[in-house]
Amino acid sequence: xxxxxxxxxxxxxxxxxxxxxxxxxxxxxxxxxxxxxxxxxxxxxxxxxxxxxxxxxxxxxxxxxxxxxxxxxxxxxxxxxxxxxxxxxxxxxxxxxxxx
Amino acid sequence: xxxxxxxxxxxxxxxxxxxxxxxxxxxxxxxxxxxxxxxxxxxxxxxxxxxxxxxxxxxxxxxxxxxxxxxxxxxxxxxxxxxxxxxxxxxxxxxxxxxxxxxxxxxxxxxxxxxxxxxxxxxxxxxxxxxxxxxxxxxxxxxxxxxxxxxxxxxxxxxxxxxxxxxxxxxxxxxxxxxxxxxxxxxxxxxxxxxxxxxxxxxxxxxxxxxxxxxxxxxxxxxxxxxxxxxxxxxxxxxxxxxxxxxxxxxxxxxxxxxxxxxxxxxxxxxxxxxxxxxxxxxxxxxxxxxxxxxxxxxxxxxxxxxxxxxxxxxxxxxxxxxxxxxxxxxxxxxxxxxxxxxxxxxxxxxxxxxxxxxxxxxxxxxxxxxxxxxxxxxxxxxxxxxxxxxxxxxxxxxxxxxxxxxxxxxxxxxxxxxxxxxxxxxxxxxxxxxxxxxx
Lengths: 100, 440
What we know:
The complex is a heterodimer of chains A (100) and B (440).
Chain A: H1 2-53, H2 59-73, H3 78-99
Helix pairs in contact in A: 1-2, 1-3, 2-3
Chain B: H1 6-30, H2 63-72, E1 75-77, H3 87-94, E2 99-102, H4 108-115, E3 122-125, E4 128-131, E5 134-135, H5 141-150, H6 154-164, E6 178-179, H7 183-196, E7 198-200, H8 213-216, E8 222-226, E9 235-236, H9 238-245, E10 251-255, E11 258-262, H10 266-287, H11 292-308, H12 323-327, H13 331-350, H14 360-375, H15 381-398, H16 403-424, H17 431-439
Parallel strand pairs in B: 1-2, 2-3, 6-9, 7-8, 8-10
Antiparallel strand pairs in B: 3-4, 4-5, 10-11
Helix pairs in contact in B: 1-13, 3-6, 5-10, 10-11, 14-15, 14-16, 14-17, 15-16
């Protein structure tokens, strides 16, 4: 009986410690992921507007944008989102310069 | 509030308390109180058959010869046998069953020969009674007394026969009778005891008092050894007579293999020692022909064991009150309480707090208004990009994303709208100007 109490209490302590350490980390991780994806989506939208506005074809930008969209299609973590955002922003810049 | 908030103090304090309780508990596991009632100085080394002189100088005929003897007579008594019984009482229960009586002190091979005589329903080796795969056992001091003092196995035979014939066991009557010793019997005993403290009667095998006597009775005792008493006759009771003559001296009287103690504290431990000794040793004493010195040696060792067990004249050792031992049962509950407090407070501290927003939704609304207003005048891609950024900022707000991120998106949108204003050539549609004008 008392051994059971020790075990249960130790398990409770472990759970509390794990929760205290893990929950904030996991929450921050999740938030960073969603934030980066939000930035990536905004960049992709912006790039697609620039592409529609550009009259001539910019193969480099098309290539970058296609890659960004293919990565975005598979979803993924913070790294993938960051990559999508960078590629889309570079494509956006190329199209804007081509329009000027 | 300055410093550590109170709930944090309680939370980490409870964790520390839990660890402390656990450490105390674990350390307490190593503590043990060594209570000893003294180490009894007896030894119990394993012994080889025959090494204690328990084998007698007798032997038994071959199985065939014994079988022939059993076929010829209902009761066959081999030379040297000691078991006696009330013929009439036994015959009444036993019918015409054959009984083979062998002497005590046979070795393993000889006992096997006796057991192999299948014509005999009941075999008696020494005073050990077996038959039909059963063994008759004495169950009390009175049983052992008549069996070892006189070699009387009547009650064993009757019990075994009743069992073998599926009859209810007969009422057990103690057939042992005491009588007062005569003056002629008592005088030489008293004279020997006064001279040497030991009397060995004619036919007794006690050569000298065994060494274990010193530990059993440190102040000395008187020993009287008599041979096995004749069957069916009253036995002279020396104990009370001798204690009257030698008050306050322990008196040990042996009748054959039966040992009696009289003297100080007799009523307290004579029965305990006798019962525990014969309960353990009765089978060996019955089967073998131990010299009386060896039986007495074992008995005195048992007396020593009982004395050292502290059951009689030794007070229990003083045990001081140990607060840890009192608190120990409460420790797991304390530990559990600390764990629960820590869990609850931790859950409180981890609970999600809302993100602080300072003016961001207002700025989003203002920029959206500007974009809608400009959209009537322009269709520049920068305007479309700006609106998509505004939509992204709106989504981010709805998703409760960090304020900094929303602000970055709004900054991007404002820059795009500024580009549009520049393209239109309208300074008043620049975002900062427009927002300031709107607020004003």
